[in-house]
Amino acid sequence: MTKAKAWDAYAKQKPERRPVNAAGEATWFNWTQYADHGPGAEVLGVRPGSAVLELGCGKGGNLAHLATLGVNAVGVDVSLAQIKAAGARWSDTPMTLHRAEATHFLEETGAGFDSVFSVFGAVWFTDPAVLLPAIRRRLRPGGVLAFSQRPPIEGCYGCQASYINRSEDEDPLVVKRWDYEPDRWVELLTEHGFTAATAQVLAAPPGPRKVGTLLVRAHG
Ligand SMILES: C[S@@+](CC[C@H](N)C(=O)[O-])C[C@H]1O[C@@H](n2cnc3c(N)ncnc32)[C@H](O)[C@@H]1O
Q: What gap in Å lies between CA 122 and CA 82, rounded to an integer?
C-alpha cells in the first residue's frame, strides 16, 4: 500500500513527543505545530466515559492525554510504524490502536463516537467528499468533529501534493492532502450535514515562524 509506505517513512523521521511539556506534565493535548501553544482537549468537549476516535493518531500523544482524562480512546493510523511507536510509548495507558486507513475503519466499525478528531492527521490527507460522510455516519447525534492542519497557501485549494523526503539517492514519496480556506471548510461541513461549523486560523506564537494553524470544529 503506497500510502502506508509513505507514512512509514515519515514515522522514521518524526521524533517522539517530549517526556514532559513546559508545565512539567507527562501528557497534554496540542492542536498546533508549535510546542506549548494553543487550546487543549476542551475543544472536544469530552467527559470521562466519552468514546473518542482519532484519525491519523501517529505516535499517540494526544490520544494518550485523552485516555488519562477517562475517555474511551481509540486511535487509527494507516502506518504500522506509527501504530507500533504509539503502542510502545503508551503501553501503560488504556487506549485502543488500530492499523487501518481512516475511511476503511469508519466503514467497517460498528462503533459510534461522541467525538472524532484529527491533528494534522487523516482528515488532512483524505478526500473530504469521501471522509466526511463516513465520519458523520459514526458520530453520535450532537457529537463533535474537530481537526487541525496547516492553513492553505493562497490560491492552492483542493487536492495538493505533499512530499515526504528520504535520503539523497531516493525520490521523495508523495501523499495527497486537501487544503481549503476556513469559509470553504464551513461550507463543506454544512453540505455534508454537519451543524454549527466553525473554522479559524490560530496565530503562531511570538517568534520567527508566522504560519498559523487552521482549527475546524462542527457537530454531527
Ligand atoms: C503529519 S502525521 C500527524 C500525526 C499525529 N496526529 C500528530 O499530531 O503527531 C499524519 C498521520 O496521519 C496518518 N494518516 C495519513 N493518512 C491517513 C489515512 N488515510 N488513514 C489513516 N491514517 C492516515 C499518517 O500515517 C500519520 O501518522
A: 13
**How many angstroms is it from 42 CA to the middle of ligand 1?**
22
Ligand 1 geometric centre to CA of 122 (Å): 5
pLDDT above 60 for 82: yes
- Give the three-state DSSP class for 207: coil
* Domains of the chain and any CATH numbers: 2-16+27-219 (3.40.50.150)
Asked if residue 7 has its Cβ within 6 Å of ligand 1, the reply is yes
User: What average pLDDT does this structure show over 86-102?
Assistant: 98
Considering only 55-59, 123-127, 165-169, 205-209, which range has the smallest mean pLDDT?
A: 165-169
What pLDDT shows up at residue 133?
A: 98
Cβ–ligand 1 distance for 56 under 6 Å, the answer yes
pLDDT value of position 2: 84
% residues pLDDT > 90 (the chain) = 97
pLDDT of 187: 98
